[in-house]
Design a protein that fits this description.
By secondary structure, the chain is α+β, with helices and mostly antiparallel strands. It has one domain: Glutaredoxin (3-Layer(aba) Sandwich). Helices cover about 50% and strands about 10% of the residues. It is built from nine helices and four strands, in the order βαβαααααααββα. Strands 2-1-3-4 form a four-stranded mixed beta sheet, sandwiched between helices. The longest helix has 17 residues.
């Protein structure tokens, strides 16, 4: 039996473009999960969110200017909502604790017997990623806070104590470091990024669903060694 091709999805939970693209990735999984293996990875775009925005938006309104920019992005898409307090008043210090939580949740699933090849959309950790994005962008909750994280974990039915265990034994840190190394290996420069065909097809930023779909279909066409992919 031939091995399924792999599609890697890299994102930062605090990235508005990743928030917008979440539904596109979900639809991609819904359509191709029986033919493709999907991997979710987290890349550090906002490891020092406050410092980055302070530097990059100095002289352009600071956090209020950045919040206005995020609003211009979100208002173009009907499927997402944006709380006006996100970034203007509520400013998470870092996305790293959020990504660490998500890797811990994935490890708990594996410990609970979830098969590595189980459909991504059936996993609580996947729903947790969306819950965290919504908590910040839609509800303006500080998702770097452990209290907010606990609420999100319990909302998707995961055991927060077990998730904490992955922090305490260091395994979540190791898993997150593997994501960072994978992003470096794939030369990921931003969020969201889709990597296919062993790194030959890389799509970054605001990529529409139909373009993603076309690339997957070409990937599944499996050209022979004498014929290169047209994507």
């Amino acid at each position: 039996m031939s091995q399924k091709p792999v599609i890697q999805h890299f994102s930062d939970v605090l990235c508005v473009w990743a928030y917008v693209a979440h539904i596109r990735f979900e639809r991609l999984v819904e359509k191709f999960s029986d033919q493709v293996d999907f991997e979710t990875h987290y890349c550090p775009v906002f490891p020092d969110a406050r410092g980055k925005i302070s530097r990059n938006w100095e002289g352009r309104g600071g956090f209020h200017g950045y919040a206005a920019h995020v609003d211009t992005v979100a208002c173009k898409f009907d499927h997402v909502k944006l709380n006006p307090d996100a970034w203007s008043k509520v400013q998470p210090a870092s996305s790293t604790p959020v990504h660490l939580l998500l890797k811990a949740a994935e490890l708990v699933e594996l410990e609970n017997g979830t098969a590595p090849d189980a459909c991504l959309l059936d996993r609580p950790s996947y729903h947790l990623s969306w819950q965290l994005r919504r908590a910040f962008f839609e509800e303006a909750s500080d998702i770097a806070s452990w209290e907010v994280q606990r609420e999100c974990v319990e909302t998707v039915g995961l055991d927060y104590g077990a998730v904490q265990g992955s922090f305490m034994d260091g395994s979540a840190f190791a898993a997150l470091d593997r994501d960072v190394l994978a992003a470096q290996k794939a030369s990921v420069t931003g969020s969201p990024t889709f990597v296919m065909n062993n790194g030959r097809q890389v799509m970054y930023g605001n990529v529409g669903f139909h373009l993603l779909e076309a690339n997957v279909l070409e990937l599944l066409r499996s050209p022979g060694p004498e014929e290169a992919s047209w994507c």
